[in-house]
Amino acid sequence: MDPLLILLFVVLFSLSAFFSGTELALMSLATHKIDSLVKEGRFGAKSLKKVREDSDKLLITILIGNNLVNTFTASLATTIAISIARNSGMGLTEATAVGISTGVITFLLLLFGEIIPKSIAIKNATSIALFVAPIYKVLIYVLYPLILIIGFIVKIFSKKGHVETMSEEEIESFIDMGRDKGGIDDDEHEKIKSILDFDDTTVEEVMTPRVKIDALDIDTTIQEAMDFYLSHTHSRIPVFTGTIDKIDYYVTGRDIIRELSYGNKDKKLSEIKLKKVLKVPLTQSIQKLFETLQGAHRTMSIIIDEYGGVSGLVTMEDIIEQVFGEIRDETDKESEEFIKNGKNSFIVQSDVLIEEVLYKFDLDLEHIGLDEKEFDGETISYVITHILEGFPSNGEVITFDVKREEDSQDIEEILTFKILDIDNAKIGKIDVTISKKEILD
């Protein structure tokens, strides 16, 4: 065979590999990755950004080049095959020779023009894309009239309107992949996931529950309000009328200090100008509440249930902490939910979930005879008041019989809840202790 023909085949296969491989390298890079390369000042980054700004023109250019090369390669192989059939004296018909050449060329194009170059490109996408981007910038300029014609024809036949976008689930999958590959640390991963869940998280999930709201009666005096303000360090304090379920106003620390400076220490809150509270339903998303608070220039809202009763309170800080984690300042006090108080005893805050308490003793609701459907997700203080059918007294003890199996033996134990303190008609700390009763045969 003529050495020039062999050289021509090598060139054509190389061009086929070039177009196939560079297509994958150029189209696989994400936009944010390209922007990052531009910021780093990498060679070819600006050209890469330019050609990717109109990916349709880039793709048409690649397809023009690839199809022209592959078509020319197949035509040249067919011409050579017919020539061999006529002059070889081997008795091959032209059809047989063309069939053999088509099979051989197809295999070679598939292997050297598609599989191998794309395998290389996927592993070196960034470096290849940066290198070839300036070349494609020139090719797009040279082929521009033809690209315009083909692009116009494509638009006629392509559907208009809907553009497929990435779903939230796909974005979360990419974020999880980034964490697994080490590109995103755990803290960043949690923050991004929290932002994605922003519109799905309801105020009920982040609110301070009703039983933990620090509020003032509307008949409280300014001096009493000042004492309360100094001991609780809240900048805004809800004000209720008669019952905590009727919170219509709030007072600020500045209001209290101003009235006190006027010598109005005996004046009641009902006698000064209070600010109206913002009320929202339990089911509202924190994203909607965030926008509402911003628009109303407020930082606090009262959460109401379907009957209009108060369920809790949400501040702007609660919403921000949902995304960025706990924000602590000099007024925040460290509090431990569980304090070890001996081998089988803990001092527990009353707002801890009952399941979390039982978990410390390897127990569940069934072990102490409580219905899971009724008490799942409830606090230990709720369980106590429900069992007693009323409010406990300081020092009162509630006991539960515990039955479980341990080392193939049936163990009977006693779990006790002892009320350690009651503050402002609220249960404070509780001593939770478990002790063995006896071994049953």
Architecture overview:
This protein is an alpha+beta fold and 441 residues long. Helix content is 51%, strand content 19%. Strand 7 and strand 8 (310-315) form a beta hairpin. It has 17 helices and 15 strands. The radius of gyration is 37 Å and the shape is elongated. It starts with a helix and ends with a strand. The mean pLDDT is 83. The strands form four sheets. Strands 9-10-15-12-11 form a five-stranded antiparallel β-sheet, with helices on one face. The chain folds into four domains: 3-157, no CATH class; 167-196; 203-324, CBS-domain, CATH 3.10.580.10; 338-440, 2-Layer Sandwich (Uridine Diphospho-n-acetylenolpyruvylglucosamine Reductase, domain 3).
How many domain regions?
4
Overall structural class, as computed from helix and strand content, comes to alpha+beta
Given as residue ranges, the uncertain stretches (5+ residues, pLDDT < 50) are none
Strand-residue proportion: 15-25%
- How many strand elements? 15
What's the alpha carbon Rg, rounded to whole Å?
37 Å
Order the strands across the largest sheet as they lie in space: 9-10-15-12-11
> Largest sheet, described in full?
5 strands, antiparallel
Helix content range: 40-55%
N- to C-terminal separation?
A: 97 Å
